[in-house]
Amino acid sequence: MNSVGAIFIKQSQDIFKNKGVLIQFIIFPVIAFLMINVVDEVSMGMDDNYFVTMFATMFVGMSLISTVSAVIAEDREKKSLRFLMMAGVKSHQYLLGIGGFFLVCAIIVSILFTTMMYNFPIIEKLTFLGSLMLGSVASILWGAIIGMIVKNEQAAISLGTTVGMIMGFGPMVATFNETIANVFRIFYTMNFIYTEEAFQAIINHLSIMMLNIAVLAVVFVWIYRKRGLTS
């Protein structure tokens, strides 16, 4: 656990040196807050939670993937990851250190989103928060995979942003197109739970998100072992 803690602390120190990352974690809740208080969602035929869920999905799908991929790619580019592996740091320790820090950041931002769900009971807010946490874990894994397969930080930013836009914007586009909706049903960003649903529907959403996490975790471990020392 010392390795995990050291990586966590290092990342927490680095984050304040990177204003671009900080902006990505702030911009989505700020825009959501402005839209909620400027636009009358009900009069425009939107759900009460439309802007909160839309921008929360964008945050989880976009910000986490792009930032985590850039951080890990930078570690590889600077040979930091090679040093860590030679020092005996395992794949799960590295992921817990990097991912744990960004998960804490995601929890803070997600709490901000749930506080903007003014007309919703606490149980629905907590359910939404829980599903965002599962989605955050999946996005962190996505970012970790991208960071491990690209050649440098610049490539990570490019690919991470592309994948993030697909994961973040996909559910919004899917609301207007049934074919796209059917495709995106297998992805975690399409399965966030924010209203009261039937028990079986909730189980289905959770199962899909957990399956996404399991698959991504296996892929990351495989790539970490295969690519880490060749960084």
Share of helix, binned: over 70%
Shape: globular
Total domain units: 1
Beta-strand percent range = under 5%
Distance between the termini: 24 Å
Describe the structure.
The structure is a single chain. By secondary structure, this protein is mainly alpha-helical. It has one domain. Helices cover 78% and strands 0% of the residues. The longest helix has 29 residues. It is globular and about 60 Å long. The chain starts with a helix and ends with a helix.
Quick description:
By secondary structure, the protein is an all-alpha fold.
Topology:
Layout: H1 2-15, H2 19-38, H3 50-77, H4 80-86, H5 91-115, H6 122-149, H7 153-174, H8 178-184, H9 199-227
Structural descriptors:
single chain; 231 residues; 0% strand; globular
